[in-house]
Every structure is written in structure tokens, then in C-alpha cells.
Design a protein that fits this description.
With about 900 residues, the protein is α+β, with helices and mostly antiparallel strands. The protein contains 26 helices and 32 strands.
Length: about 900
């Protein structure tokens, strides 16, 4: 029976409905499949971008630790020169660990005295080669860099600059991928100040480390990039305009990132040091091609299936097969990504661990981690508990962003070490993470080095006591009431009596041993609550927690008795020791000035020595003596005022040649004098001792040198040629390492030959400060100047030291000349000094010559020059003769 039209229509309608339904279903399945694959690809792209962001952040944080290490180093040694700075950077192995390093530098904070403007000019840069243009470069002229410097100063946190073109690579077309990480340096050492105003007030300068981004992070990121899928990796500054060139760009497989306009790039942000960088993965046109092709096949198969059931079933099976293949590809891609992560982490110098949250088991540990924890290649990692890390500790750290701790761990070989570690959740967000990523750095050597440097910076190398700098710091804290147990205390200034006698007689090794012995005695006698320091030379300082006069006097006397009761033995010889003590009590509630307290204690010690040594002198004990001492201190201000008002003047006294020098151009000595404000001449014995005692004499010495050289042609009244001009130098100037440079500059300014000048230093100062005197004499003679040893014969070991002091003239002390005519012993001494002087090649000058009889006798002995009132009465230099008319 033929089918009815209705049945045919029904079949047709059913066929049509089946076909239409099949087409609709096929298209829906294809679209669903496409969205599923695209989501998976988007997720994989986003995970990859986030992983690269973590690698970039780890590298930047490692770079910041370099800057923090330099901040620690310069806080302990703020006065490093360029060579010492270079050695410290090399010791940290910064160039080896960070191939992108361009320079490590330091720019001190300076204020222009005229305009008040701040400057930060680079003074220390290493490596110097290729960075010469950085020396003197002022950060204050660069607004962006200055802003990052001020942010680092106010927060004491690493601050990273915006990307810029490096000074070392400023050729046209050069990529602007330079970046600077900086930290401040504060006065007062570590720890850094916590208050904002204190940080700004105590800022000393800025520590800078610059890197090339492409070199710093390029190799590490490219080692992890999935090269089976073509895309472009970019690192951009979040504040850059969209069209600006990226900081770093890597195009893989030779395929440019033409991009799919329908799909956005995967982006993750990395915040560090005040800057935000974007890690962006840009998919190219091939990224989603496979997914769309498969979706089209599914849809086409659905249409065919609607027409032919077998074709539809076949297409369905093919779609299922392809889905399985895609799943296998995705799983393979995950495995490949994990392998790349492992290869990347094995290249990192930081120990990297992946730890399960539930039981603390270690699922992965890189090569650096195995070395750090002494794991052999075949050893299973085990649990974190076996190395001294607890899961609860990890959990606490994971809840704190940017947390960094120092913990003590123990490797499998039994070695304990200090580690700096960071912990971050993996596999989820917040507390929902099922794994932790743990980073460990062995900080044992760095911490030990820091502790050693801190100890060396605060302790005297010879005695092991506190050094002057640390003692001053603790005295300031005691005066401020912040040094526990010493809010009320006594400051003691102790000086060993006749130390130089032992030092000169037995040598410096004996002197060093003596100082070490006394230091140990003081440490033992003072007690645990006290502070004991070597202030320099044979001077010691103590802070004793005792203010009652009777109790303190007993303790001070115990110190003296202990020293006196322990004779110093050296190579079979014994020396009795005594010391002098000056002391002042203080109460922190009175807010005393530390410098003033130290000066008072020093003055009291000086008075104890003047009173006969081996005694204790407490401030205000003797008002009459203290008053005289204060009067001497008043001279310091008077001398400074005279220098400022140009009330010093020069006299000259000629020397008479007694031998072959007769007829030569005149040789004379300059004498400095001072006028008071009324115009009256002040005797040199009134102001020179105070100037020497309180450290003002070097300023007077420089005034004499500067004035003499500027007016050299007018020093002699007749205006004739000057053979030699002698200038006295104080003992304090001998210790001034900058004096030779100052003299050289003045000679160049005056266009004067150095051989016209002779500088006189006393024998007593030379013997007391032999190393400094020897260095100064060598420097002066290297410049071409002459040197005379004044007051020769008054010291304890004149002839012994004469062999090692290459001077040009000996000036025989006047005590042997005054009674020369009538004293045969003086004649013998003068003759002996003259003979020895000529044997070592020096000229001999007799001073304090008062008569022609003495001159004739000196000529017979072979003395070369005579000086004194019997030869020439000092006269004022003509240029200063009218000074009194200008005075009120």
C-alpha cells in the first residue's frame, strides 16, 4: 500500500525535523566545544603569564637583596674609598650572580652652601670601566629618579625606577630597558630610623644598583617559555601608553604576534619597588586555529548526520576521538610546562620547594635545594619536618604578604645554617591553596660577615674593647637615658703614665702588649654593667654605673691600684705602671651634652697628670685649677676670632751663616704673633699652648703658610732675594694627612719654588708621633721642601731616631746654648750633636745665641748657622707693619 500523502508529509516532516534538529544540535555542540577549548587555552595562557610573573618577581627581589646588602655594608663602613667599595662589591659576587648588572653606586647627600639646594652626585661607582660618565652625575637633576630616591628615603624600602635608556648605552636606537633599584643610607648605622622625620634628617645618601632588564630576566624567562605554541612575551610598564615600546619583548618560533582581534592577551601584574610591570602573552593568529577547525568539523558532521544517520554517528565518533586527542595534548602540554618549570628552577641559585599543605610532604625540590639540604640525587625529599621547618610556620607565613624570615635549618649531613625564606600559596587563592611554594637562600655567610663587620666597626682591634666611635654612641645613649643601667653614671677618662717611655724603649710590639694587658684589667675591674673603650693611643674611657662620690672614688682607686700592682714584663725587664684618671658624674635627666662631658673628663685627666700623676681628679674638685683650665679653653674662641678678623701678623728673625754659607741670600724664620682688639700684641706663650692643647694650632699653621706664600716677595724689608724661609709646624699638623695637598695647592697658586721653604717640627713631637712625623717629612721632602728638627737634644732618644728621620737641618735646643761660653758640658754636647749631624748629612743650627763670644765658639765647632737675639731681634714683616693703625 502506497503511503498516504499525510504519512509522506509526516515522514518528510520527520526527516526535515530530524535534519533541522541534527543541524541545530550539531551547531550547538560545535559552539560549545569551541568555547570549552577556548576557555582551556585562555586558562593555560593565563597560568603561563602568572608563572612568568612569579619568576620575574623572584629575580627582582633577588636584585633588591643586593641593594640591601650594600646598605648594610655602608652603614657599617660609611667612609669607604673607591677601591674598598669595589672590593666589597666583588666580595658579594654581584656581577657573577646578576648578569644584567650595569653598575653599583653611591651618591652622598650634599647641600649647596649658597643656594641651599640638595645634590646627590655619584662618588662611588663599580665597575668603573664603562661607567665613567656616572661619576659626578647629579640625581637631583633627574625628577623621576629624585622622586624614587625620596620615596626610598622615607620608607627605607627598595624602590625601582621607571625604565630608561642606560647611560652606558645611549646610542640611537638602543632599547630603553635600564632600571635602577635604590635604598637610602642613614647616619648612626643600623638599625635604620623608624620615624619619617628621623629618616629625612639622618639621610646620608643613596645606594644604587642598575640593571639591564633584558639581560637580568631574559635568559630565565626564555628558558621557561612554551615554544610549541606561538605567542609573544612582553614586559611593559603599567604606566606606559598603549602604543609605547615594551621593556622586554621575546617573539617565539619566528612568528610575530599579529594577534587575534577576537581574543585578548593574557596579562598579570608584578608590583615591586613602587613600580607595576605587566607580563603580557599575546597569542598570534595560529593560537586558536585548531580549536576553530575542530568546531567547524563538528558542525559539518552534524549537518551530514542529519541527512545520513551513519554519517552523523561517524562524525560523532570522530568528534569524541578528537576530544580525547585534545585531552591528551592538553595533558602533554601540562607535563611539558611542568618539565620547563623544573628546568627553569634548576637554573636558579635559590632553593625552590613545592610542599603539600595537608601533610608537609615535599613534592619537588630543585638542584640548588638539594645542594643546600644535602640531598643526593636519588634521595626522596621526604617531609619539611626533617629539616626543621614546621607546617604551622609555613601556614602563618603564607597568610602574610611579602613576608620574609630568617630561620635556622639543619641539612641531612648535620650542618646547621641560617636561611632567608619566603612562602607563597600555590594551586588556589588564599587559604584554599593545596600547595606552598617555598624559596630558601643560605644566609649563614652573609649574616656571619655582617656580624663580623659590625663587631669590627664597634671594637678596637688591639684590645677587644669598644672603639672611640662606639663609645661616643653609647655615651650619647647614656646621656639620653636610653642605655639601660647607666641613666646615672660616671664618665672616666684614664691615661697611662709614661707610656711613651716603654713604647720608645722596647718598641711598638711592647707598647701594643701593654695596652692589651691594661684593657683586659679594665674590663675585669669595671664589671658587666660598665662600658669600657680604648679611645686612642694610651687613653681609655669608662662608663660606670655609680654616682656616689665615696663609692666612685673607691672604684677609681681600685682601678689605679690594680694597674700599679701589675708590673709590665717584657723580655726579662720589668716596668712599674701608673695611670691618671679624670672623671665627671652625670644624670641623664639633666640632658647633658656628651661632647662637653668628654671634654670635662679629658681636662680632669690632664689636671691629674699636672698634679703629679697616679691619681684621680674629679670635675670641680679643685676650683682654682679648673678655673685656669677654663681660661685656657676661652683662648680657643679668641684665637678663632683673631683668625676671622685677620689680627695675626708675622715677624721674621734672620739666621747668621757661620761657614761656607757666608754671602748667600738671607735665611730667616717666620714667627707668628697675635694682636688683641685694642691693638696690643699678645705674647705667644699666652695663646700658642692653648691653641695646641685644644686643636686650633693647625688652623694657625695654615694661616701662616697661606699668608707667607701669598706675600713671599715682600717678606724681607730690603726686598732682596730670599735664600730660605723657615715656618714652624705644630704637632697636630703632623697628623693632618691633607696638609701636603694644601701646601702643594698654595705653592702652585703662589708660583713659588718649594726649595725656598723649610718646615720646622720639634723633636718632642716627632718622637711622640714617629710614624706621623716620618710620613709628613717624607711628603714635604718629596714636594721639594726642606725640613728642620727643632729643639734637638731635648728628647729622650735623639740619636736613635735621627737615623730614621731624613731631615735637612738640626736646630740644637737652646738649653745647651744659653750657657755655652761658661759650661764645658754644654760645649761637649753641642760639639757631639754637630759632628753627628754632619755625619748624617744635615746642616746644624744653634738657637738662643746671645753674644759674639758664643758665635765665635759655635763657628769653631763647625755649626752652620746661629740664631738668637745676639744675631737679630725679630722684626715685623713690612706688609703687617701698619696693621695697628687699622685696629680700633
Amino acid at each position: 500500500m502506497a503511503p498516504s500523502p499525510r504519512s509522506a508529509h509526516s515522514h518528510w516532516f520527520l526527516s526535515l525535523a530530524t535534519a533541522l534538529g541534527g543541524v541545530v544540535l550539531a551547531l550547538a555542540l560545535g559552539q560549545y566545544h569551541l568555547r570549552t577549548l577556548e576557555r582551556e587555552d585562555d586558562r593555560a595562557l593565563a597560568d603561563t603569564a602568572q608563572r612568568y610573573g612569579q619568576v620575574l618577581l623572584a629575580r627582582l627581589e633577588a636584585s633588591a637583596r643586593v641593594v640591601r646588602a650594600m646598605q648594610t655594608l655602608l652603614s657599617l663602613e660609611p667612609d669607604l674609598d673607591a677601591e674598598a667599595f669595589r672590593r666589597r662589591v666583588e666580595a658579594l659576587r654581584v656581577p657573577q650572580n646578576f648578569p644584567g648588572l650595569q653598575a653599583v653606586g653611591y651618591a652622598p647627600r650634599e647641600r649647596d652652601p649658597d643656594t641651599g639646594a640638595l645634590h646627590y652626585r655619584y662618588t662611588l661607582v663599580t665597575p668603573l670601566k664603562g661607567n665613567e660618565r656616572l661619576i659626578g652625575l647629579d640625581i637631583a637633576t633627574q625628577p623621576a629618579n629624585l622622586a624614587s630616591l625620596e620615596l626610598a628615603r622615607d620608607t627605607d624600602e627598595p624602590v625601582m625606577s621607571e625604565p630608561f635608556t642606560l647611560v652606558q648605552h645611549d646610542r640611537p636606537g638602543e632599547q630603553s630597558d635600564g632600571v635602577v633599584i635604590r635604598l637610602p643610607l642613614y647616619a648612626g648605622g643600623l638599625p635604620s630610623p623608624t620615624e619619617l622625620q628621623s629618616r629625612r634628617a639622618q639621610e646620608l645618601g643613596s645606594i644604587v644598583v642598575s640593571f639591564r632588564v633584558s639581560s637580568l630576566v631574559g635568559a630565565s624567562l626564555e628558558a621557561a617559555i612554551d615554544q610549541d605554541r606561538g605567542y609573544e612575551l612582553q614586559i611593559r610598564d603599567a604606566d606606559q601608553p598603549e602604543g609605547a615600546a615594551p621593556i622586554y619583548s621575546s617573539v617565539l618560533d619566528g612568528v610575530g604576534a599579529a594577534g587575534d582581534p577576537d581574543r585578548p592577551a593574557a596579562t598579570t601584574e608584578v608590583g615591586f619597588g613602587g613600580q607595576v610591570w605587566q607580563v603580557r602573552l599575546l597569542p598570534n593568529a595560529q593560537w586558536y586555529a585548531d580549536s576553530r577547525r575542530e568546531a567547524y568539523v563538528v558542525g559539518g558532521g552534524g549537518v551530514v548526520a542529519a541527512l545520513l544517520l551513519a554519517g552523523w554517528i561517524t562524525a560523532l565518533l570522530r568528534t569524541r576521538e578528537r576530544a580525547q586527542r585534545l585531552a591528551e595534548q592538553l595533558a602533554s602540554r601540562v607535563r611539558d610546562s611542568e618539565q620547563r618549570f623544573r628546568r627553569l628552577s634548576d637554573l636558579l641559585p635559590t632553593a625552590t620547594l613545592v610542599v603539600r599543605r595537608d601533610d608537609g610532604g615535599i613534592e619537588y625540590i630543585n638542584h640548588a635545594g638539594r645542594q643546600l639540604l644535602a640531598l643526593e640525587a636519588e634521595d626522596p625529599p621526604g617531609s619539611i619536618d626533617r629539616f626543621g621547618l614546621k607546617r604551622q610556620t609555613l601556614a602563618d607565613s603564607a597568610r602574610i604578604d611579602e613576608d620574609e624570615r630568617t630561620v635556622e635549618l639543619q641539612a641531612l649531613d648535620g650542618r646547621s645554617f641560617q636561611a632567608v625564606w619566603r612562602c607563597a600559596p600555590l594551586g588556589g587563592a588564599g587559604d584554599g591553596a593545596d600547595h606552598w611554594l617555598l624559596l630558601l637562600d643560605d644566609a649563614t655567610e652573609r649574616l656571619q660577615l655582617t656580624a663580623q663587620l659590625r663587631y669590627q666597626a664597634s671594637h678596637d682591634a688591639l684590645t677587644g674593647l669598644l672603639n672611640r666611635r662606639e663609645f661616643d654612641a653609647r655615651l650619647r645613649r647614656a646621656c639620653a637615658g636610653t642605655l639601660a643601667g647607666l641613666e646615672r653614671a660616671v664618665l672616666v677618662y684614664l691615661d697611662i703614665d709614661q707610656f711613651k717611655l716603654i713604647n720608645d724603649t722596647c718598641g711598638h710590639a711592647a707598647g701594643d702588649q701593654l695596652l692589651a694587658n691594661v684593657g683586659e684589667q679594665l674590663r675585669s675591674e669595671a664589671g658587666e654593667r660598665s662600658q669600657v673603650a680604648r679611645l686612642g693611643g694610651d687613653e681609655f674611657g669608662l662608663l660606670l654605673a655609680e654616682t656616689r662620690p665615696e663609692a666612685f672614688r673607691a672604684r677609681a682607686q681600685d682601678l689605679l691600684d690594680s694597674i700599679a700592682a701589675t708590673p709590665f714584663l717584657w723580655q726579662g725587664r720589668g716596668f712599674a705602671l701608673t695611670a691618671s684618671i679624670g672623671a665627671v658624674a652625670f644624670d641623664a635627666a639633666d640632658r647633658p651634652d656628651p661632647a662637653e662631658l668628654l671634654a670635662i673628663a679629658d681636662t680632669a685627666c690632664y689636671l691629674a697628670k699636672e698634679a703629679g700623676r697616679n691619681r684621680v681628679m674629679v670635675h670641680n674638685e679643685d676650683e682654682q685649677v679648673s678655673h685656669r683650665r677654663r681660661n685656657e679653653m676661652d683662648w680657643v674662641q679668641r684665637i678663632r676670632e683673631a683668625l676671622a678678623e685677620d689680627r695675626f701678623c708675622l715677624y721674621f728673625q734672620e739666621l747668621r751663616p757661620l761657614g761656607r754659607q757666608v754671602g748667600a741670600p738671607p735665611h730667616f724664620e717666620l714667627l707668628v704673633r697675635m694682636r688683641d682688639r685694642s691693638g696690643a700684641m699678645v705674647p705667644p706663650g699666652a695663646f700658642i699652648p692653648a691653641a695646641e692643647r685644644f686643636g686650633v694650632m693647625p688652623e694657625v699653621d695654615r694661616w701662616v703658610v697661606r699668608t707667607a706664600l701669598a706675600r713671599f716677595e715682600s717678606l724681607h724689608p730690603q726686598g732682596g732675594e730670599i735664600g730660605l724661609c723657615s715656618i714652624n709646624l705644630s704637632g697636630a699638623t703632623m697628623g693632618d694627612e691633607s696638609f701636603p695637598g694644601f701646601l702643594l695647592a698654595e705653592l702652585a697658586r703662589a708660583e713659588l719654588a718649594p726649595d725656598k721653604l723649610c718646615f720646622e717640627i720639634t723633636e718632642t713631637s716627632a718622637v711622640s708621633n714617629f710614624n706621623q712625623a716620618s710620613a709628613l717629612i717624607g711628603a714635604l721632602r718629596q714636594l721639594g721642601c726642606k725640613v728642620a728638627l727643632d729643639d734637638f737634644g731635648a728628647g729622650m732618644s735623639s740619636f736613635a731616631y735621627l737615623k730614621n728621620l731624613p731631615v735637612d737641618y738640626l736646630k740644637i735646643d737652646g738649653s745647651f746654648i744659653r750657657d755655652l761660653v761658661n759650661d764645658e758640658l754644654s760645649q761637649s754636647i753641642v760639639a757631639a750633636i754637630t759632628k753627628v749631624g754632619h755625619q748624617v748629612g744635615t746642616g746644624v743650627i744653634a738657637e738662643f745665641v746671645g753674644s759674639e763670644e758664643a758665635i765665635d765658639l759655635l763657628r769653631e765647632m763647625g755649626v752652620d748657622y746661629a740664631q738668637g737675639f745676639g744675631v737679630h731681634v725679630p722684626e715685623i714683616i713690612p706688609a703687617h707693619a701698619s696693621l695697628s693703625s687699622d685696629l680700633p
